[in-house]
Structure prediction request, 431 residues.
Amino acid sequence: MSQFFGDIAPLTFDPDTTDLGFRHYNPDEMLMGKRMEDHLRFAVAYWHSFAWPGGDPFGGQTFERPWFNETMEGARLKADVAFEMFDILNAPFFCFHDADIRPEGATFAESEKNFREITDIFAKKMETSKTRLLWGTANLFSNRRFMAGAASNPDPDVYAWSAATVKLCMDATHALKGENYVLWGGREGYETLLNTDLKQEMDHMGRFLTMVVDYKHKIGFEGAILLEPKPQEPTKHQYDYDVSTVYGFLKRYGLENEVQVNIEQGHAILAGHSFEHEIAMANALGIFGSIDMNRNDYQSGWDTDQFPNNVPEIALAYYEILKGGGLGRGGTNFDAKLRRQSLDPEDLLASHAGAMDVCARGLKAAAAMLEDGALERAREARYEGWQREPAQSMLKMDLSEVAGLVAEGNIDPQPRSGRQEILENIVNRFV
Prediction:
């Protein structure tokens, strides 16, 4: 035991507690025929929780962690602390990048050796912990070699290095029985068109993703391959801007039935959308997979990766998730970090516990709205005309035939209220 968290006991559900614990998140509470834990499938992000030093664009490290060093001893201690926290939170899942868990070696082989040692430690710890791997991924953006991207890089050596890294991480995810594998294109985009061949870069990304899918089937990995949409950060334009952009990319390269999306709330906002919009769009296109749960500071205009605290926003997101059939093999990953002034170990636990409570409240509100049915009845009523003839037949006609219906039927359409305020009032009854 590292004793990083001192004598803090595992957190429990107690609606009356005034101490560190869960006031709303009851893992065993039944909602729509399923345990709350199985609906939410919470995951702890290794990178922000254990690897982030507390810097921002104008200032450096504020956190002092005993494992903050580029040694294997530090990496082992980090793993000890991580699983202690997973157990305190009773977390079902965690997620990691390769660079989060091991120090960078002087060569690829040395980095691989370090990585394999830590994933072996994970496997051993998972024998006695309830926490499982939601997904693994590769960090193909932090090191300076990736300054021009990974799969879209103009240097074929970087492309090859990236492929080797993804293979390593996929092998580890498979060995650890991960539920999914994520590709996060942190720098798959461009800063200026003056030195960019758009078609070549996108073709290379398409080929790279095809290799990943082929390898998934080769090794018998049963989890989903997930792409994470991300707009304009850090590059001027990213090829995986939002859910619709990703779907167009997948269609172009014949991968729309092989790859799903991992949607982050903060990225949705940066793309000019709401979280629920991106989830609903992914469900409509048949590519919804999983979510990263966080929020942005709406005044900063940047991806601040804060823990969620807005129940109405979260309720609308889970409403779309439940309406689409739930998270499936996906989960609710807290891709969120402490504020750089939140220095204490207890802050790390309180942030996750509070976020889990917020999500629990949002989920319960979403389930209640679905079971009430008022929103869905209003939606069905708005489109009821399409359930009758000749509307159904009209969808099979050509343009001239449809135009003829207007004259033949003396059609004179009159506007009908969209009832937006009434629907918003319905939502507010539950949140």
